[in-house]
Amino acid sequence: MELLAPKAGEAVLEIGCGHGIATGLVLAAGANVVAVDRSAKMVTACIKRNERGGRLTAFESDFETLDLGAFDAALAVNVDFPRHADRGWAKKFSDVIKPGGRVVLVLEAPTIRTADRFAMAAAAALAGAGFRVDTELGQAMVAVRAERVP
What we know:
This is Methyltransferase domain-containing protein. The chain is of the alpha/beta class. It has one domain: 3-Layer(aba) Sandwich (Rossmann fold). The protein is built from four helices and seven strands, in the order βαβαββαβαββ. The chain has a seven-stranded mixed sheet with strand order 3-2-1-4-5-7-6, with helices on both faces. Helix 2 links the parallel strand 2 (32-37) and strand 3. Helix 3 (89-96) crosses helix 4. The model has no long low-confidence stretch (mean pLDDT 92).
């Protein structure tokens, strides 16, 4: 959450919402959240966990195929976009993130090799889609933070 720094009233997209733990933290900051997951079971869990949090829209879908509108920020925890065949995820972020908006991708990485692969591939893809990118390596995790260049 520190890297995303959600603010009250912001529109935040969460990809791979899972059980809704991060969703709840973003909602607690006062942001409006659209949460997406490929699993209907996870979407249900996210909604149930955050039913009193307000300002949440959650649904089952692939992020890359949606017409989502514009967001101030996006978050994905343990969604290894670069590992899979390119479905246009970096371009999709540039389509949905407002100029000056930010993207935070966090991966729990069991090895330094996994962390390095993720960071390099995600940073290159986002930079190629018009983002200014920083990476941060922590203990057993890596984060890629990107800001859409206005």
